[in-house]
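Reading a protein record of the kind used here takes only a little practice. The record below shows the convention in full:
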Amino acid sequence: MTNITHCPYTGIKKMRYLFMAEHMPEQLKELKRQGMPALDAYMDQVQKDYGRTITEYVNHWDKTHQHLKQPGNWDPWLKGLKMAEHQAEEIAIRNVIEAL
């Protein structure tokens, strides 16, 4: 396991940085060698991909679960939406943050 003493990022970017430090040290080293603009651009793309993955998943879930919207009782749809958001985050972490 790589020992990181400083990570210049927070949130999703930090998760990716730490994952790369542990599992992809050569790629991270190369990005660092290219300088902070290259590393920042890479991390900005990670952030965009993460958000896009969540948005696409939740939008798809919404389109395929319109039948849960009941006049006067949106509870089933809202509970399902919350579950879909949680699943979307797990998928985004797996597909974007932990992607080799």
